[in-house]
Design a protein that fits this description.
The chain is an alpha+beta fold. Helices cover 36% and strands 14% of the residues. It contains nine helices and ten strands. Bound molecules: cobalamin (B12). The site of cobalamin (B12) has 36 residues, from helix 2, helix 5, strand 5, helix 6 and strand 8. Cobalamin (B12) binds next to helix 2, helix 5, strand 5, helix 6 and strand 8.
């Protein structure tokens, strides 16, 4: 069943006409990475402690969605949708505002991600296993916490971290084998599937700033000054995308969502896990 799900998701991404920027033949996403986490992985409880009690575990999602808190076995199925070269190249030429391709890839790419969520819910439900996509659920909400800042009731990146797909970075983004210029999605199901093995030990393993005290290119790429050696200031990032980017580009680009992503392009972790610099002997 696991191979069947991987094949169906991969096929959906490679053949869907909706995986294209509007009125063009430009693909939004390359082939996905797919990972699986056990719903009983203790990390989901750790997230409640690190993020806040508002961040729900897979079991709590089942309780809310199906009014059944007895989920004892199951899987979180996650995917990474890496942006194509055309989307990346266009944004890497920009220094202040996102490119049209990036803004449209954020807008139409997330609509596509929602369709993929629905598609995966349907194919897994057809096997007789109840399945929920938290991001499509009426129980998914944004939240604000004094310590952690802007967050939500289900973080797609934290699910992907649990499924072995990547580690966090100075900008907060997840660095995967295909880099960090991508979008993430997930569903929770009672279907039991073998978990993926993570190849990392720590939360920040793939980020050069943390693993070798080098890089920092994302700090210079951020037009809002939201990234420093101390991390990512979400409020500054939020304000820049809403108050500067949206009024400047949205009408011309025919989108209605905030975007930017300059910190995700023209950086060493854009398309792959960057190699650590050699230590001089
Ligand atoms: C709220 C939100 C924002 C907020 C806050 C971002 C944030 N850091 O959480 C703002 C408005 C700033 C924002 C901006 C952007 N966003 Co946004 N956003 C979200 C949203 C809706 C919820 C995120 C959430 O709940 N986070 C929870 C908090 C707690 O996460 P965090 O603070 O990053 O977590 C840190 C700590 O938990 C820490 N940590 C501490 N202790 C521990 C312990 C353990 C064990 C672990 C694992 C971690 C950990 O590690 C993390 C990294 O530092 C998600 C969609 C979703 N449902 O997930 C998209 C999402 C995160 N955004 C996304 C994107 C692409 C963007 C933008 C690039 C805008 C754009 N599209 O052009 C920018 C810049 C992103 C950035 N640098 O993070 C993508 C990220 C993809 C990626 N490559 O990582 C997501 C996943 C959407 C998607 N479906 O793909 N976003």
């Amino acid at each position: 069943m696991k191979e069947e799900i991987i094949s169906q998701i991969t096929n959906f991404v490679s053949t869907s006409e909706l995986n294209k920027l509007p009125h063009t033949e430009i693909k939004i996403y390359n082939s996905p990475l797919i990972g699986f986490a056990d719903v009983n992985n203790p990390i989901f409880e750790v997230y409640k402690q690190k993020i806040g009690s508002f961040h729900l575990t897979p079991k709590e999602w089942f309780g809310l969605e199906f009014e059944d808190s007895s989920l004892s076995k199951g899987t979180v199925i996650c995917w990474i949708l890496p942006f194509t070269e055309s989307v990346l190249k266009s944004n890497s030429l920009e220094n202040e505002l996102p490119s049209k391709e990036w803004a449209q890839a954020r807008f139409y790419g997330e609509q596509f991600n929602d369709m993929l969520r629905e598609f995966v819910v349907n194919i897994v439900t057809e096997t007789g296993s109840r399945t929920v996509a938290p991001s499509l659920s009426s129980h998914w909400k944004r939240s604000y916490d004094d310590t952690i800042g802007i967050a939500s009731t289900w973080s797609e990146r934290h699910a992907a971290y649990a499924a072995g797909l990547g580690t966090f970075s100075l900008t907060d983004a997840l660095i995967t084998e295909r880099g960090m210029a991508m979008r993430v999605g997930s569903v929770i199901t009672e279907l039991v599937l073998e978990s993926s093995q993570a190849t990392y030990n720590g939360v920040y393993d793939n980020c050069l700033h943390y693993n070798s005290n080098s890089c920092g290119v994302c700090i210079r790429r951020c037009p809002a000054g939201a990234i420093s050696k101390n991390g990512h200031n979400k409020d500054v990032c939020f304000d820049y995308t809403r108050k500067i980017v949206m009024p400047a580009v949205n009408e011309a680009y025919e989108v209605t969502t905030p975007s930017c992503g300059l910190c995700q392009t023209k950086v060493p972790c854009e398309k792959a896990i960057p190699k650590r610099p050699k230590v001089k002997s």
